[in-house]
Amino acid sequence: MKVYEGDSFAEVYQASLKDLMTSPDYQSTPRDLKVNENINVSLIVNDPLQCLYSTPVRSSKKKYIAAELIWYFMGRRDVDFIKKYAKFWESIQNEDGTVNSSYGYLLFKKKSRFGKTQYEWALNSLIKDKDSRQAILHFNLPEHQYSTNKDFVCTMYGIFHIRENKLDFTVHMRSNDVVWGLPTDFAFFVLLQNQMLVHLQKTYPSLEMGKYTHVANSYHIYERHFDIVSKSLEHDFKSERLPQIGKSLISYTSEPSTEFSVLAENYEDSEIDVFSDELFKWIITNIKGDEEV
């Protein structure tokens, strides 16, 4: 396994891209698309909220990240909202206009036969037992295994641990496109970790943010992106920080908070001021930006 550890996403991302471009484990052609691929890669970030990066060539797609945060934390799975920010969702939608890879729907809306969401299960596991090894979130499900599926979920599972009074989070992915997928996935998973921390601090007031670990079984870059990555690597990757959660985005029971619902329903209103929360301001500012995805 190739392991990249640092204080920021920018640091580990740059190092992993260099290896992927210069010495990949494989060059394979899934679906007749040439890729450079490294098998079993782990990115470990010690300060997870440093989850954004910038270069003069390509940077974190903040407009799309902001839109995706609304889509996910509202628990939506419809394409109508998210296609305005990334048209590729239209190409993988189901016949009913939904997609399988809405992580928010999978975590916050879909319930087990015992009436609990994935997020509730993980949160309650750690409230009951601070040393629990069962605080797991499932993403890819048996129901996604059908031959005509255009949207086979890339993320397998995530797991939270509390160790030495810090909340660590690890996500395992079967497959990760390092240009289009990884930077946006990373931001969401880190904010999910931050939200879990906020909820757990009600039980464990001194609990702190720990490490975020991102494991990809197939860590790959498509040939169409070779040039832009090579040009990006001619520059230093600068780290940028995502504001931490002030007002919760969801409740203990996985429902959108009142404040976040106000933001989600009114973000296009130029006068909206959702309690002057720094993360909410970041979402509103960036979703209104003119950046292309």
Description:
The chain is of the alpha/beta class and 293 residues long. The protein has a domain at 60-217 and 242-287: Thymidylate synthase/dCMP hydroxymethylase domain (Thymidylate Synthase, Chain A), CATH 3.30.572. It is built from ten helices and ten strands. It has helices spanning 9-22, 62-73, 79-82, 88-91, 103-109, 118-128, 182-200, 226-232, 258-266, 278-287; strands spanning 2-6, 26-28, 35-45, 52-54, 136-138, 155-163, 166-173, 176-177, 208-222, 238-240. Strands 1, 2, 3, 5, 6, 7, 8 and 9 form an eight-stranded mixed beta sheet that branches. It has a two-stranded antiparallel sheet with strand order 4-10. The two termini are 31 Å apart.
Please name the CATH architecture of the domain at 60-217 and 242-287: 2-Layer Sandwich
Rg from Cα:
19 Å
* Class computed from helices, strands and strand pairing: alpha/beta
Number of helices: 10
Order of helices and strands: EHEEEHHHHHEEEEHEHEHH
Q: Please describe the biggest sheet, giving its number of strands, its sense, and whether it closes into a barrel.
A: 8 strands, mixed
The fold-level CATH name of the domain at 60-217 and 242-287 is Thymidylate Synthase, Chain A
Overall mean pLDDT: 94
Query: According to CATH, what is the class of the domain at 60-217 and 242-287?
Result: Alpha Beta
Shape: globular
* Beta-strand content: 15-25%
Distance between the termini: 31 Å
Q: Give the full name of the CATH homologous superfamily of the domain at 60-217 and 242-287.
A: Thymidylate synthase/dCMP hydroxymethylase domain
Q: Catalogue the unreliable spans.
A: none
Q: Tell me the total number of β-strands.
A: 10
The residue fraction in helices comes out at 25-40%
